[in-house]
């Protein structure tokens, strides 16, 4: 059955985007932080958060191919649809980085040429030591390579999936496994380096070897939340006739499990730095604990405890009510996780969560959903001819 | 009803019936041991006895008989400890994580992998034990109700967390393994004719009757234990890594350690499973159950986990420079170019570079080559721990105390001894225990057996 993007849904998302635009305009006008850092940091928090969801979708899709998994085949088009936001998401990130290069904002301290100038009063010895890596040309090459290759694969997987609907056979499937393996290798390196380049370099002095994997787990779980919620919604609208309770249960298990992975990595990074208490490292958490205490620890406990306590039982993962409640709460929780990665380095203790933050979040949410729903209209929501389709349709656990 | 896609490869080859599966698995239990088994256990026993001799000498004389010195206070002892714990990871990963992921190929390997896990963890536990010197005071590591004045364990120490993590892991793995064995012991009990084995297997099978209710509970407890064991797979090696990472020693203190140690552990565990099973399938004629496809799947796990470890090595190397911390950078320069350069490059070659050959399907389905690679990985993972421990310590903050580590015959003897004991235990397992979960295998015969798949492929 083809997906119908109703007028009502379009209007709602358009209204969301309108709220976002109002928040942006009003926010920019009322933003008294240096270089409008607050405004730009909000662009980045949302820009990265929603981009990461689509990148997580791409990763998850490749993972399904490479591991010969069948259970999610009935929901494959949902994953693909979410991955299609990656194009707009990339464009927004490019605008944000370009604004940094043009010095419209000062979130990347290292983009200021004076910190490398030994004669300047702003000279920073530690940052100058990183110049071989943190310099604008190399940063841009890396960023464009990441975005270029990721979007290339998003397009490739989508194209081949639609092709499989038409011609069938197993050739496309086996070749997809190879492409997925190539993507996963590339992603294994670049998901880490991209998070160093884009996020870790905001706190320019600070470093943590685990950072890339922690960011990765966050994007994975954020994607899974969206995936679970959209799958439930589509199923309830009658769009996914082959999807049964077992598919929803499996998707719920993923959300549950990767919440643990995220918790594990968050805690490993935090505990080791807190325990060792080495000045150059611990400063990162001192800022967060001194100025963001409730938000910082609150976010962690919500993202950990809600999935753990509520979704532990088998029945809970088969009841859409529980999944929706937990999903919505930790969706906001993981948005706050991204917020906690970006804001302290950008604004220090001058942080707010006001109309600008909430409005822009709503605006981006509208843009994201509009794009994803639009992608749903472009292809049938149930795949045809996938070699594992029958196995997936018979899923029963 | 479960429906398996036609393109999936069969997991049980040949025209097997339920009865044949029982007979194939029981062959070693009811038959006489062949010559190669006696030779193997003979060699392993000699190694074990030498090791036990060295351990007794160590306990009688003191830890000074090892090559440790004031700068390098940990060397082979902790290297061997971490190496064995790492090997002990594959079993629970296979039985728990693969069970949760409904990977049916695990059934051919889980029983022996779990046995390997239990024996490996036992060998790991030897090391901190004998490292204490006065092993008769070993109970001090437990937080006992205080009868020793004000002497309590240090709850802030990751070494204590290790005690909890490893003993929990061992208990859960043992229970998991044993519960899986119960129905198979019962099958053997029903088949053997001699009175004594019948009595023994009868005791071991806890009076299993095989009625529907028992099977129902069996499946439920398996899932519950899998759920409990999965976080343990992560926690054990994470906490082992924290023995190092909570310190302020350059090369030890790095946040990536917990997940990277877990990945390395799975990597080395699967390598050891390959080493053991490639021989076992041949000697015990189990080629129809442990097929080339199984070996290929394990090789894929090896390449994935090996590459994760590789990414972690490169991350550490890069961040040591990026951090701008002089000591951190030096620790890594010293690893790669200092007096222990050979151990660093042995580690890099064995763990990161050589597993990449498994990208070629021809090589990852070649049995001889896989066996060779499994040994390479085992060596590489030993060197990884040696590199982390010794090269980080031997040149500390004070250049006047810089030194090298030289193992004594006791260091070497104790290590060889644990390998010997491990193999003795494993060989006994292979001789007297059902090495495949024969009852579980029967559940997939009709969906994944070769002749049944053929009949449905019209």
List keywords for this structure.
heterodimer; A: 397 residues; mainly alpha; 14 helices; 74% helix; globular; B: 458 residues; 17 helices; 70% helix
Structure commentary:
The complex is a heterodimer of chains A (397) and B (458). With 397 residues, chain A is mainly α. Chain A has one domain. Chain A is 74% helix and 0% strand. Chain A contains 14 helices and no strands. In chain A, helix 8 packs antiparallel against helix 12. Chain B has one domain. Chain B is 70% helix and 0% strand. The mean pLDDT of chain B is 90. At the A-B interface, helix 5, helix 7, helix 8, helix 9 and helix 14 of A face helix 8, helix 9 and helix 10 of B.
The share of residues in extended strands of chain B comes to under 5%
**Inertia-based shape of chain A:** globular
Q: Mean pLDDT of chain A, nearest integer?
A: 93
Number of strands of chain A: 0
Characterize the quaternary organization of these chains: heterodimer
Detail the poorly predicted runs of chain B: none
Helix content range of the residues of chain A, please? over 70%
Number of discrete domains of chain A: 1
Model regions low in confidence, pLDDT < 50 over at least 5 residues of chain A: none
How far the N terminus sits from the C terminus of chain B, by CA atoms, comes to 20 Å
Query: Ends of chain A: how far apart?
Result: 26 Å
Q: Any idea what the radius of gyration of chain A is?
A: 21 Å
Structural class, from secondary structure content of chain B? mainly alpha
Question: What's the shape of chain B?
Answer: globular
Count of helical segments of chain B?
Answer: 17
Report the major sheet of chain B: none
Largest interface: A-B, 42 and 35 residues
Report the average pLDDT across residues of chain B: 90
Q: Helix count of chain A, per DSSP?
A: 14
H/E topology pattern of chain B: HHHHHHHHHHHHHHHHH
Report the strand count of chain B.
Answer: 0
């Amino acid at each position: 059955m083809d997906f119908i993007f109703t007028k009502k849904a379009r209007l709602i998302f358009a209204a969301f985007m309108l709220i976002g635009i109002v928040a942006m305009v009003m926010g920019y006008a009322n933003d008294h932080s240096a270089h409008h850092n607050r405004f730009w940091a909000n662009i980045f928090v949302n820009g990265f958060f929603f981009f990461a969801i689509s990148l997580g979708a791409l990763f998850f899709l490749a993972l399904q191919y490479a591991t010969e998994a069948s259970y999610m085949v009935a929901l494959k088009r949902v994953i693909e649809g979410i991955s299609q936001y990656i194009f707009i998401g990339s464009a927004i990130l490019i605008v944000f980085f370009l604004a940094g290069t043009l010095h419209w904002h000062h979130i990347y301290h290292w983009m200021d040429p004076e910190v490398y100038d030994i004669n300047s009063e702003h000279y920073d010895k530690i940052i100058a030591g990183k110049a071989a890596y943190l310099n604008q040309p190399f940063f841009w090459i890396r960023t464009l390579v990441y975005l270029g290759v990721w979007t290339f694969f998003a397009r490739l997987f989508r194209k081949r999936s639609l092709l499989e609907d038409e011609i069938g056979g197993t050739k496309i499937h086996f070749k997809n496994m190879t492409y997925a393996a190539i993507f996963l290798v590339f992603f294994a390196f670049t998901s880490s380096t991209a998070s160093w380049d884009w996020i870790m370099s905001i706190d320019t002095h600070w470093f943590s070897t685990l950072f890339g994997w922690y960011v990765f787990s966050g994007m994975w779980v954020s994607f899974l939340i969206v995936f679970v919620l959209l799958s439930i919604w589509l199923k309830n609208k009658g769009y996914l006739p082959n999807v049964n309770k077992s598919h929803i249960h499996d998707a719920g298990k993923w959300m549950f499990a990767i919440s643990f992975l995220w918790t594990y990595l968050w805690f490993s990074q935090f505990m080791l730095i807190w325990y060792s208490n080495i000045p150059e490292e611990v400063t990162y958490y001192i800022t967060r604990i001194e100025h963001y205490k409730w938000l910082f620890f609150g976010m962690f406990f919500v993202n950990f405890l809600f999935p753990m306590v509520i979704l532990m039982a088998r029945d809970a993962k088969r009841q859409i009510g529980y999944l929706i409640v937990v999903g919505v709460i930790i969706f906001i929780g993981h948005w706050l996780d991204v917020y906690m990665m970006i804001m302290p380095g950008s604004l220090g203790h001058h942080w707010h969560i006001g109309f600008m933050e909430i409005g822009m979040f709503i605006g981006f949410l509208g843009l994201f959903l509009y794009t994803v729903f639009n992608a749903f209209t472009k292809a049938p929501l149930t795949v045809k001819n996938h070699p594992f389709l029958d196995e997936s349709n018979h899923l029963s656990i | 009803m479960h429906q398996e896609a036609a393109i999936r490869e069969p997991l049980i080859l040949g025209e097997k019936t339920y009865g044949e599966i029982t007979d194939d698995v029981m062959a070693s239990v009811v038959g006489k041991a062949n010559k190669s088994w006696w030779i193997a256990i003979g060699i392993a026993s000699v190694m074990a006895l030498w090791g036990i001799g060295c351990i007794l000498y160590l306990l009688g004389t003191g830890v000074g008989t090892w090559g440790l010195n004031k700068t390098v206070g940990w060397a082979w002892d902790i290297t061997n400890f971490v190496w064995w714990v790492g090997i002990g990871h594959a079993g629970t990963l296979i039985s728990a994580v693969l069970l949760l992921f409904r990977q049916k190929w695990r059934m051919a390997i889980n029983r022996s992998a779990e046995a390997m896990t239990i024996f490996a963890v036992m060998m790991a536990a030897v090391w901190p034990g004998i490292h204490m010197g006065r092993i008769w005071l070993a109970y001090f590591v437990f937080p006992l109700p205080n009868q020793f004045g004000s002497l309590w364990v240090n709850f802030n120490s990751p070494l204590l967390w290790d005690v909890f993590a490893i003993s929990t892991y061992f208990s859960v793995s043992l229970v998991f393994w044993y519960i899986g064995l119960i129905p198979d012991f019962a099958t053997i009990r029903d088949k053997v004719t001699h009175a004594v084995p019948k009595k023994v297997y009868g005791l071991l099978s806890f009076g299993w009757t095989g009625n529907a209710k028992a099977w129902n509970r069996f499946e439920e407890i398996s899932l519950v234990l899998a759920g409990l064991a999965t976080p343990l797979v992560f926690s054990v090696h994470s906490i082992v890594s924290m023995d190092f990472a909570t310190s302020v020693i350059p090369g030890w203190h790095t946040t990536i350690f917990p997940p990277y140690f877990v990945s390395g552990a799975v990597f080395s565990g699967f390598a050891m499973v390959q080493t053991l099973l490639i021989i076992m399938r041949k000697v015990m004629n189990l080629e129809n159950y442990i097929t080339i496809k199984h070996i290929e799947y394990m090789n894929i796990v090896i390449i994935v986990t090996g590459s994760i470890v590789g990414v972690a090595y490169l991350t550490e190397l890069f961040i040591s420079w990026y951090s701008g911390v002089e000591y951190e950078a030096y620790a890594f320069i010293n690893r790669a170019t200092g007096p222990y350069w050979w151990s660093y490059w042995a580690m890099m070659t064995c763990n990161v570079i050589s597993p990449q050959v498994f990208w070629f399907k021809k090589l990852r389905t070649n049995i001889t080559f896989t066996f060779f690679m499994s040994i390479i990985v085992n060596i590489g993972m030993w060197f990884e721990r040696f590199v982390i421990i010794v090269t980080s310590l031997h040149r500390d903050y004070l250049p006047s105390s810089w030194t090298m580590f030289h193992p004594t015959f006791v260091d070497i003897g104790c290590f060889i001894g644990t390998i010997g004991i491990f193999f003795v235990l494993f060989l006994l397992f292979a001789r007297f225990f059902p090495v495949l979960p024969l009852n579980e295998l029967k559940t997939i015969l009709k969906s994944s057996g070769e002749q049944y798949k053929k009949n449905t492929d019209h």
